[in-house]
Amino acid sequence: MPDDQPRPTGLLDRLQALLGPSGLLSAPEDLAPHLTDWRGLYRGRAPFLLRPANATELSEAVRLCAGAGAALVPQGGNTSMVGGAVPDESGLQVPVSLARLNRMRDVDPVDMTMTVEAGVVVKAAQDAAAAAGCLFPLSFGGEGSATVGGVLSTNAGGNTTVRYGNARELVLGLEVVLPDGRVWNGLRRLRKDNTGYALRHLFVGAEGTLGFITAAVLRLFPRARESEVAFCAVASEEAALSLFRRFRDRDETAVRAFEYMSGAGVDLVARHVAGAALPVETRAGHYALVDLASSRPDAGLRGMMEAVLEEALEAEEVLDAAIGGSEAQRAALWRIREEHPEAQRLAGASVKNDVSVPVSKTPELMRRCSEALRALVPGSVPVPFGHLGDGNIHMNLLQPEDTDPAAFLARSHEIMDAVNAVVRDLGGSPSAEHGIGRLKAGILEEWRGGPELDLMHRIKAAIDPAGLMNPGKLFPP
Fold first, then answer.
1. What is the structure's pLDDT at 310?
2. Which part of the chain is the FAD-binding PCMH-type domain (predicted)?
3. What is the pTM of this model?
4. Are 421 and 191 in contact (CB under 8 A)?
């Protein structure tokens, strides 16, 4: 049903009867947190919010809405960086929060799996795995509020992708409510299953445009019994990549994370985040954070860390380094990396660019993008940082001092285009781990046109022929 046509009368009454007073909210104060993204890029409207308590309620609510032609917007922790989880401004799209689907259904340390519902917060999933003596490795800055359903829908990456892969690599099975209300139960714990198409991979990364992920079987790993973290001042972008190669070549299985930070970014953290301080004596234009971990209690990671850093110091790739001697010190080193988004927020308006290139091209990416952005916006501050070990760099740009933030943000797409021109030339992607959402929907034709985009449209039309699932996201309206 087109958005400008009224909904059939009686839909609200049927939904209220189905979901009860806790499952359908319409008061402005209840709706407000669900109508804007956390970055404040978009502010939508909605007639009410659905909060089903389980997959059965969600299935029936989706069936009712499908019959009425009501568009639905899946929402997890609402931590999307690209406006992927909020309704549009029409006031007719219905947000559906899965926060109440928050049960830990099963943790099996023999199968090394956990079965969790979509509303489980990622940190809670990590804690449940740890309580069973296992590791759920997906980790990123928003893990305390992002939910499992959301991170699977966006195929989230994060800090440990270099070791464990993106969210997609951690999923064995899914439960999904389809756009017509039917429930597909694919909650299989099998490591090998070649029975037809691997349907779970359609829904992981689909950004809620094909259905509601309501539960998942996730892979677990042995917990780390030994770990080491080092914060290094390095001579250049190339030196950071060389340091990564040294650790990878020494023992690839020990590298849990490898993060790059610019001098400008670390300075922002030291200036704006209380309690954060540079842990090395040498100030530099470039820094790297190395995180090693092993499930073996006698892995000798400290010796490995010191040996590789000594080699890099002799080669003048590393200028200075600090190794965390305790869990608290390791957390403090990680905090410098994790506080980059907050420090940028406190420093002023910034344009975010979540891009990826082949790992070998990361130094060229950061150097060329920084030059292009300084030329495009004189006085601005490029702040590249992120997951150098897997080629995913957040090529952000901080506004010039004494510049109107709104005027700067009005140039967001111009700035993103400048970055994407370099990314394209290097054979990369304009969306590494944040997804497309609403912010980048207009670029899909350019980046994934021809047969690839045609296949995407055919899949969408086959599963959601009425186009009611998260309209305006991923694909342009």
1. 98
2. 42-223
3. 0.92
4. no
Q: Do both 231 and 333 map to the same domain?
A: yes
Per the CB < 8 A criterion, the answer to whether 42 and 473 are in contact is no
Q: Which two tokens stand for residue 95?
A: 């947000």
DSSP-derived pairing of the beta strands 255-262 and 104-108: unpaired
Residue type, 164: Y
Place of tokens 């809670």: 124
In a domain, 409, yes or no: yes
List the beta bridge partners of residue 246.
none
Chain segment 422-461, per-residue pLDDT in tens: 999 999 999 998 888 888 888 888 999 899 999 999 999 9
Burial 372-408, CB ≥16 within 10 A → b, else e: bbeeebeebbbbbbbbbbbbbbbbbbbbeeeeeeeeb
CB atoms within 10 A of CB 457: 10
SS3 177: strand
- DSSP for 239-251 reads HHHHHHHHHHHHH
Structure tokens belonging to residue 181? 């209300």
97 lies in a domain?
A: no
Enter the tokens of residue 408: 């700067």
Residue type, 258: F
Number of domains making up the chain: 3
d(CA 209, CA 389) in angstroms, rounded, equals: 30
User: Are 268 and 215 a contacting pair, CB within 8 Å?
Assistant: no
Cα radius of gyration rounded to whole Å, the chain: 23
Same domain, 236 and 294: yes
Alpha-carbon torsion angle 384, 389, 391, 396, nearest 10: -10
Domain encompassing residue 423:
348-433
Q: What is the dihedral of CA 28, 31, 36, 38, to 10 degrees?
A: 120
Q: Which among 219, 76, 78 is positioned nearest to 138, based on CA atoms?
A: 219
Angle between helices 263-272 and 340-347 (to 10 degrees): 70
pLDDT digits (tens, 9 = 90+) for 76-129: 988 888 888 899 999 999 999 999 999 999 999 999 999 999 999 999 999 999
Q: What is the mean pLDDT of residues 44-49?
A: 95
* Strands lying side by side in the sheet with 171-177: 104-108, 113-117, 212-219, 171-177, 183-186
As a whole number of Å, the end-to-end CA separation of the chain is 14
